[in-house]
């Protein structure tokens, strides 16, 4: 067999495989798991002061829910495919801890899996909003710019007087001048890039959140100083944005 003929056969084989993959898309499942520095966290761990953040604050978690949107796969040719518009992940009520995209996906290896934490500005401010998020009361008041929360993380901590005190670590778009004409110093949604993935039939992709990272990297979070009224505090929102960059990761292997 000549070298040219051999090359043609290889190309035809690759094209055939690619065509088969396109014709036979598959279902995949996302599982969202939560940890505190390597220790699994579920709602069974809520309402008990059992965690210690990087500042040494003892705390509990009573509610954790957050928004991920524009879940995308990037092909090797840089073509991007949006496979899910958004999901409200609610750890408290075990909602969307596991879900399958509404579209089937061609088999193959993709150069990147990504999503947006929260909503970008275009999606955050659509007319009439999103009914399911409205029902969940995930809205941000108009005086703070409207749209939706990116995350609600609530609980209690032991303050410097050795007393239990509530905290509300709520992430939204950073806002100044609350009222009729709020201003926005910077965007605080962010894109999470999880790296390459290979999709085959019944692939499970495990996204992990390390909750402890919200309190430590790069800003060590002192709950005695920053515990409530954080939504109108643009500096606190920008700190959350910074800390969120290292919160999510992908565990490629099935559990």
TrEMBL record:
Annotated ranges, domain Copper-binding protein MbnP-like = 27-220
Coiled coil ranges: none
Record InterPro entries: MbnP-like_dom
Q: Which UniProt keywords apply?
A: Signal
* Stretch forming the signal peptide: 1-19
Q: PROSITE patterns per the record?
A: PROKAR_LIPOPROTEIN (PS51257)
Name a Pfam family for this protein: MbnP
The reply on keyword Signal is: yes
What is the name of this protein? Copper-binding protein MbnP-like domain-containing protein
């Amino acid at each position: 067999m000549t070298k040219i003929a051999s090359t043609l056969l290889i190309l035809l084989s690759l094209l055939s495989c690619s065509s088969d993959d396109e014709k036979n898309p598959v279902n995949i499942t996302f599982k969202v798991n939560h940890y505190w520095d390597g220790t699994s966290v579920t709602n069974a761990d809520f309402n008990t002061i059992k965690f210690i953040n990087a500042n040494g604050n003892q705390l509990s978690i009573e509610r954790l829910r957050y928004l991920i949107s524009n879940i995308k796969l990037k092909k090797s040719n840089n073509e991007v495919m949006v496979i899910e518009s958004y999901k409200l992940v609610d750890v408290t009520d075990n909602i969307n801890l596991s879900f399958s995209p509404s579209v089937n996906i061609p088999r193959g290896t993709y150069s990147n899996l990504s999503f947006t934490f929260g909503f970008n500005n275009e999606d955050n401010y659509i007319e009439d909003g999103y009914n399911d998020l409205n029902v969940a009361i995930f809205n941000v008041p108009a005086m703070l710019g409207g749209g939706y929360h990116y995350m609600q993380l609530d609980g209690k901590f032991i303050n410097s007087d050795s007393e239990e005190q509530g905290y509300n670590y709520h992430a939204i778009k950073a806002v100044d001048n609350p009222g009729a004409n709020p201003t926005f110093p910077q965007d605080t949604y962010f894109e999470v890039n999880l790296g390459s993935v290979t999709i085959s039939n019944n692939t499970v992709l495990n996204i992990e959140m390390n909750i402890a990272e919200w309190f430590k990297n790069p800003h060590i979070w002192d709950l005695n100083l920053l515990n409530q009224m954080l939504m109108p505090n643009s500096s606190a929102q920008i700190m959350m944005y910074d800390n969120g960059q290292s919160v999510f990761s992908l565990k490629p292997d099935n559990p």
